[in-house]
From TrEMBL:
It comes from Natrinema soli. Residues 267-551 form the Solute-binding protein family domain. CDD domains: PBP2_NikA_DppA_OppA_like. Coiled coil: none annotated. This is ABC transporter substrate-binding protein.
Length: 592
């Protein structure tokens, strides 16, 4: 079987069997963080007597129409931070501007958003590895640098079985001590569907391509009608654009990958036939007769090009490598890709099987389209990313050429997308072996909110809400004969992120003190109406160590208060213990 089964949870022990002291880890990693981020002098300045001002910070987040939960969390944290003596302002940005500000420009103090997460803990390598601190995208947007954590993240990429579990546990505990970001909660993931037009909604996850393939339409039903609360796909279908992409469901329907995964983390063959694994090399055989939407054959050369291109979008023509702002962590595990014949490719990886096979999940790009997008782009209006701007980053790709089960045939910006079944898709030739498109057309209408999206389903104007519903509308969805809610496993999470490039957010003791102002349990009830679960560490249950299990409060940074209200005396003691001080008006002071 191609994939891995998560090993059972274990306690917090290193590979030599000795217990880990998280407080000792803080002492070690705090010093290492300061040394590697060059902030020694700035941290000393925090306790000097000259030029001391009230500490000010800006919370960057999304508006209600982009993500209602984010602005609600921001409002609550503004209240608790203010009670702690901090001068707080809100910077509310549209989805595109937010992602450009945080993921491209790194222009923020703290931010609140929903992280894409992952079913395998290796996503933390991309999220926190020091080498990525100055790159753009979801690779280390926090600018976090800690060589000890780097070592643990690298170790879990190489280790297998119990040894990997122990390395993951050590990494999670060190991250919980340092708090480069504060995981708040994992929301429940529900979608409204119509059951009289289609059966099979619960067969696969509705955030992935497989959820929309293999459905059983009723007689004479030829169109699958979806409603979506995010209009950005009508403006941009570039699979590499982190400012326009979230879960990537539409990308998966347009572009095939060599493999596909499921909510348990198992990786299964898709564009590739079942492969052999010898511990370092994956022998890939492409399925027969695969074509791109323009009729060009999909070949091993396209696969080789894709991995080279995602590692360096300039293909060696730039002054430095220009890795794609998406899929960076996945392709990092690939050492070589060699096209051996028209449909056979050899991929060598420098990681364990679980990590190496996840490199097979990236979209395969047609070389004849994307090779011309390697040129450097400069000038006004060009999106600037840390690793260089090429045509590949700035193109909106609104005539996408993939090889996926659906192809785009029409769109109206801000309103709708229309796809039709790609009748040359390989799944149509494999019977019940693989799920395939069962309708002629897939239409996506844009709705302004989860409420209106649900109404479209209830009124029989849509068959499914492509976006997961906001948690405040879940309990109000009617359960009629023609419709119901489908719950899917969730691995995305809401977080409070710190820009560790700048003081005082570079100081882990300051971050820990701020983390204790977040009442996760209370936010789940007030903001998410109980349709979420608070977490101390952002991995799926199989990987949560006993030391970080939620037991009514965060075991590492418990909230300093009750029912959303901070205990001001306890908060002041926490900040003073972290090396900060207050003036006679209870304002937290810092040299700006």
């Amino acid at each position: 079987m191609n994939g891995r089964r998560a090993v059972p949870k274990r306690g917090s022990r290193d590979t030599d069997g000795t217990s880990i002291s998280r407080r000792a880890a803080l002492a070690a990693t705090a010093g290492l963080t300061v040394s590697t981020s060059g902030c020694i002098q700035r941290l000393r300045n925090l306790v000097t007597r000259d030029n001391i001002d009230q500490l000010s910070l800006t919370i960057t987040t999304l508006p209600t129409e982009s993500d209602r939960a984010c602005i609600r969390i921001a409002n609550e944290l503004e209240r608790t931070f203010t009670a702690a003596g901090i001068d707080v302002s809100l910077d509310v940005r549209s989805g595109i501007d937010f992602h450009r500000s945080v993921l491209y420009d790194h222009d923020f103090d703290v931010c609140i958003s929903r992280h894409p997460g992952g079913t395998d803990p290796d996503y933390l390598y991309q999220a926190l590895y020091s080498r990525y601190a100055d790159e753009s995208g979801w690779q280390n947007p926090f600018g976090y640098t800690n060589l000890a954590v780097d070592d643990l993240l690298e170790k879990q990429r190489r280790a297998e079985g119990d040894e990997r579990q122990q390395a993951v546990t050590s990494a999670l505990e060190a991250i919980a001590v340092e708090q480069p970001f504060v995981p708040i909660c994992i929301p429940e993931e529900h979608r409204a569907v119509r059951t009289e037009r289609f059966a099979g909604w619960s067969e696969d996850h509705l955030a992935t391509r497989r959820g929309y393939l293999g459905l059983e339409p009723a007689d004479d039903v030829e169109t699958l009608r979806a409603t979506h609360t995010d209009a950005r796909p009508t403006e941009n279908l570039n699979p590499l654009a982190v400012d326009y992409r979230d879960r990537g469901t539409i990308t998966e329907l347009l572009y095939d990958s060599l493999a596909t995964d499921d909510p348990t983390g198992d990786v299964r063959p898709w564009l590739a036939k079942p492969w052999d694994w010898d511990g370092a090399t994956i022998e890939i055989q492409l399925r027969n007769g695969c074509e791109f939407h323009d009729g060009t054959p999909v070949t091993a050369s396209d696969v080789e090009f894709t991995y080279e291109f995602l590692k360096d979008m300039s293909l060696g023509d730039g002054d430095i490598n220009s890795p794609a702002p998406r899929f960076r962590g996945q392709v990092e595990s690939v050492e070589t890709v060699d096209a051996r014949s028209h449909n056979r490719v050899e991929i060598t990886v420098g990681t364990n099987r679980a990590v190496g096979e996840r490199a097979l999940l990236v979209p395969i790009l047609p070389e004849h389209i994307w090779r011309d997008r390697t040129a450097d782009v400069r000038g006004p209006g060009a999106v600037s990313i840390a690793q260089g701007t090429t045509r590949a980053v700035v193109t909106n790709n609104m005539e996408p050429v993939g090889s996926g089960p659906f192809r785009l045939v029409d769109r109206t910006e801000g309103e709708q997308l229309t796809f039709e079944r790609f009748d040359s898709h390989f799944t149509l030739d494999h019977g019940d072996e693989l799920p395939s498109p069962t309708v002629d057309e897939f239409s996506v209408e844009i709705a302004p909110s989860s409420k209106t999206a649900v109404q479209a389903v209830e009124n029989d104007d849509a068959d499914v809400t492509l976006s997961a519903l906001e948690t405040n509308v879940i309990d109000a969805v009617s359960r009629s004969d023609g419709g119901r809610l489908v719950e899917s496993p969730s691995w995305t999470f809401y977080f409070l992120g710190f820009n560790a490039r700048n003081a005082p957010f570079s100081n882990p003791r300051f971050r820990r003190a701020l983390a204790q102002l977040v009442d996760k349990e209370w936010l789940v009830e007030e903001v998410f109406h109980g349709n979420a679960r608070p977490v101390a560490t952002p991995v799926i249950d199989e990987w949560v160590p006993e030391s970080l299990e939620w037991n009514g409060s965060d075991p590492e940074t418990p909230f300093l208060g009750t029912d959303g209200e901070v205990n001001v005396n306890a908060v002041q003691l926490a900040f003073e213990d972290a090396g900060f001080r207050y003036d006679d008006q209870d304002r937290l002071r810092v040299r700006q």
